[in-house]
């Protein structure tokens, strides 16, 4: 890809722009409907920016890095046919892109926070395109950024995306539940942070199946009952029961 | 504490012995019912070891670092009255300790794997004793190892322990579910590892409430339905629904 234009200025756009520039890809311009956001991203990286469709420059690749609900509308803005347009969503098909250009997907599998530094080479990328040539080009581009690039169709990408909902969104919610229980014991969230980090660290060179510990794994029904008694929220009780049952069933043949 | 004897030779005993020795606490001896395990721990740290109760040396503190189900039996073995005996369990009362000695708890709040190095100063410790003097001594001892020491009664300690079940045991099980979904898409667990680590890293300087992202947080019912269709296991469907509802409810007033 000789030139890239980024459409969007949120967390994903921010980190993708940086990752591309760090790998000496020519990011020509950033477009965002809110000028101040386009400006912030553009100025931070010393690249052009605009909020006007009429000013959109010609490029080999347009990356629409926006929330799922905004992708379709933004896809109408690109006025060129002889180019490749991709979105960065884990769950949308290429068909969401409404234009006569060639279409694809460039999905980075990570949770992005603007102010947090990330090692881009460790972010898995999933690429897809309507034709082999474009897919090869997207693969090569992702391969410049990352050590882990996969070609996947939409169905597989959706599954990968859903696995991320479990491993990140749901996990974060369990952190929240844990925090609320800790606070009932008048303990700050700080006491949970080292445990949370070590639990994630542990499976960096182990499989979750062998890393599992705790009362449900041991089949310790006395503790399980005591914990059910300690819980006051009925949704938390249901979750505790269901998660414990699921763990027990996973190890029932041990 | 002038001298300590460790009862047990599992993961917790292994790391506690190291943490104490690194802080120049005199660990006199390790006792374990399986001699080979006592020997392994003793020789690794250049301290005495035994599998015989009759050889148990006199010390100021005995730390029973064993699984919950073994604590009571081991507590009978200590033949001295004028000493302090503690266990390291998050869920057991001091009353589980059956002897005429003074009793307490020395609970390190972390998940321990033998071969994995840990920063002991970051592990929160929760101490409890039947009398103030012993509690002070346990606090001072934990304070030598760690930057985060709390005095808690049994009820609060049980809540802290349960919060750990959510933040570590249940979280690890979600990693396992995520892995199984990823494998349905013929993707290795490796594609999830960076996301898992970043999700845990993120809340090291953020609160889970502000770190939450994903379809349930956004109230994106189209994705939620698609994910329910992708799931083939009924328990996973129930879990998905319950976790999503719980997230939605957490943010419903936003």
Structural summary, described in words:
The structure is a homodimer of 254-residue chains. Chain A folds into three domains: 4-152, Rossmann fold; 161-202, no CATH class; 212-254. In chain A, helix 2 (35-45) links the parallel strand 2 (27-31) and strand 3 (48-50). In chain A, 48% of the residues lie in helices and 14% in strands. By secondary structure, chain A is α/β, with parallel strands linked by helices. The first copy, chain A, is elongated and about 65 Å long. Chains A and B meet through helix 5, helix 6, helix 7, helix 8 and helix 9 of A and helix 5, helix 6, helix 7, helix 8 and helix 9 of B. Chains A, B: Residues 123-246 form the DUF2520 domain. Chains A, B: This is Short-subunit dehydrogenase-like oxidoreductase (DUF2520 family). Chains A, B: Residues 2-67 form the Quinate/shikimate 5-dehydrogenase/glutamyl-tRNA reductase domain. Chains A, B: Keywords: NADP.
What order do the helices and strands come in, and which of them pair?
The structure is a homodimer of 254-residue chains.
Chain A: E1 4-7, H1 11-22, E2 27-31, H2 35-45, E3 48-50, E4 61-64, H3 68-75, E5 84-87, E6 102-108, E7 125-129, H4 132-145, E8 149-151, H5 154-184, H6 193-202, H7 208-211, H8 215-218, H9 221-230, H10 234-250
Parallel strand pairs in A: 1-2, 1-4, 2-3, 4-5, 5-6, 7-8
Antiparallel strand pairs in A: 6-7
Domain Quinate/shikimate 5-dehydrogenase/glutamyl-tRNA reductase (chains A, B): 2-67
InterPro entries (chains A, B): 6-PGluconate_DH-like_C_sf, DUF2520, NAD(P)-bd_dom_sf, Shikm_DH/Glu-tRNA_Rdtase, TM1727-like_C_sf
Domain DUF2520 (chains A, B): 123-246
């Amino acid at each position: 890809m000789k030139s890239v234009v980024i459409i969007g200025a949120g967390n994903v756009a921010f980190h993708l722009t940086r990752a591309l520039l760090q790998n000496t890809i020519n990011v020509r311009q950033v477009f965002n409907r809110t000028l101040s956001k386009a400006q912030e991203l553009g100025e931070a990286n010393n690249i052009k920016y605009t909020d006007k469709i009429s000013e959109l420059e010609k490029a080999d690749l347009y990356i629409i890095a926006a929330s799922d609900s905004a992708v379709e509308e933004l896809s109408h803005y690109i006025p060129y046919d002889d180019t490749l347009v991709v979105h960065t969503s884990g769950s949308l098909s290429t068909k969401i892109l409404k234009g006569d250009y060639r279409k694809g997907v460039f999905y980075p599998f990570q949770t992005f926070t603007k102010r947090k530094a990330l090692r881009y080479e460790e972010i898995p990328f999933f690429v897809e395109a309507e034709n082999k040539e474009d897919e090869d080009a997207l693969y090569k581009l992702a391969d410049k950024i990352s050590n882990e690039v996969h070609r996947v169709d939409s169905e597989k990408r959706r599954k990968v995306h859903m696995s991320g909902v479990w491993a990140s969104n749901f996990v974060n919610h369990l952190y929240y539940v844990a925090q609320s229980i800790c606070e009932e014991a008048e303990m700050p969230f700080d006491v949970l942070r080292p445990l949370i980090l070590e639990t994630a660290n542990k499976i960096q060179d182990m499989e979750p199946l062998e890393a599992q510990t705790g009362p449900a794994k041991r089949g310790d029904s006395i503790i399980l009952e005591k914990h059910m008694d300690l819980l006051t929220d009925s949704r938390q009780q249901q979750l505790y029961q269901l998660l414990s049952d699921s763990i027990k069933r996973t190890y029932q043949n041990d």
